[in-house]
Amino acid sequence: KSCIAAAMSALVLLSTPTQAAExxxxxxxxxxxxxxxxxxxxxxxxxxxxxxxxxxxxxxxxVYPNSSLVGDADELQALLDNEVQLLAPSLSKFDKYTKKLQxxxxxxxxxxxxxxxxxxxxxxxRELLRSMADHGIYGLAYWSNGLKQLSATRALQKPEDAAGLxxxxxxxxxxxxxxxxxxxxxxxxxxxxxxxxxxSGMVQGTENPWSNIVSQNMHTVQPFITxxxxxxxxxxxxxxxxxxxxxxxxxxxxxxxxxxxxTQAVNKEAEALNQRDRERIIAAGTSKLIALTPxxxxxxxxxxxxxxxxxxxxxxxxxxxxxxxVNR
Length: 328
Ligand code: LMR
What we know:
The chain is globular, with a radius of gyration of 21 Å. The chain is built from 13 helices and eleven strands. The chain is α/β, with parallel strands linked by helices. It has a six-stranded mixed sheet, sandwiched between helices. It has a five-stranded mixed sheet with strand order 2-1-3-10-4, with helices on both faces. The structure holds (2S)-2-hydroxybutanedioic acid (LMR). Pfam families: DctP.
């Protein structure tokens, strides 16, 4: 082998991380932390089904739900190491790679789930899909879950009711500040540990969309759920840039077409799934649902809003402004 040929094959090896022998299907491991019967879980399975139908023999998808392959503490590193090829972490989990996505965590920023969807379709959000390019993370799409509700062992009607309680949060500095703003203690824990922490009393409360509460049985250990809709928990479907560009163009285009289709299905169904799960909680009778009057909601808002100012520098005032324009 000449020097040039050796160098070329080294380059090819570097840029095609997972392709084994020619003719073998490309394997896409899609790992996530939630159950199958959730917006993200269903999206992952639909992606697998459509790829099996349309790219049989060329691409093989393996879905690993419930943190069964990697959990949220190490999934991004696993993606960068090309141990998994697709993830859809919550937008709260990218702190280490970009500060801009923290905009999605700002409390009371979006009026409702439709407003978030509008923002996800705006130019600013399309740009944010590229905000982690320097780290080799390539954003493919936004997937919806839903608005978060506060839950606890105590009725949370006023912000003062949260004082002194510990809340499980995702690893996000904005969410940390949000709970500190109501004199509560935020505790960062991987999703896989949330139920146990609530059940054992290590923490007394948390925040989740209805689908995550039900699929983790959290309602069985949270006697009170406040319908606060105070923030959003949506996802970014991401891949490893080097892996993605190593896929032959024609196959990659087909995969991107499938992703568009799945994204539309997920985003169309997420709200209905969350409403179904809200009904399931009511039917289970384990938790009292607490409605907030407009004045009570305003009181939570007033307490949590200062968080916006403290993160404006990191996120960018332009990003926050762009997000605000989607409210009607
Ligand atoms: C959480 O950790 O609460 C969520 O990010 C889990 C998820 O993926 O919905």
